[in-house]
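hey m, so remember when u said the tokens were messed up on ur end? i reran from scratch. heres the input so u can diff it against urs
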Amino acid sequence: MVAAAIEVAEDGMAAGELPIGAVVVTGNEIIGHSFTRDAATGRRLVHADLLAMTAADEKLTTSRHPAPLRLAVNLEPCLMCLGAAMNLGVCEVYFGLESPGDGAAGLVRTWQPASADMPWFRPPSVVGGIRRDQVREQFRRYCETAPDSRFRRWAQTLVDLPASGGG
């Protein structure tokens, strides 16, 4: 699944966006996918994972999902996107590269659900580091060609993360 998110991120990079891509999967079917759209829209709430989940939500009924929902992103989700994943009922999140400045995967370990009346609003299981070095390489390629901007400077912090040695 992370491989599919990496492919979507490549599409985003080709469109002049940061290389961040996401897919939402139920069973073996991708029901939502997107890359981030910060550059094209000039807006901040257009994260790849949020847009992919919105697309998936449009295809789902509110009463029942055909199978558990899984989210794959090439970059660790932020707090906003993890909250959206919980609200959508995503049970598993997979990501490639950690995002120390704004990633929220660590919060899942300490989340305490407030109510048994909201069984869909539970923290998903989160697995990171899948194809990590491949994602880091995507960001390196982005930084080589992107004009100087806050996006490129932020992306460089991801490139500067230590290599995992495996990937």
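this time it looks ok to me. Residues 18 and 141 are 10 Å apart (CA to CA). if urs says something different then somethings off w ur setup not the seq
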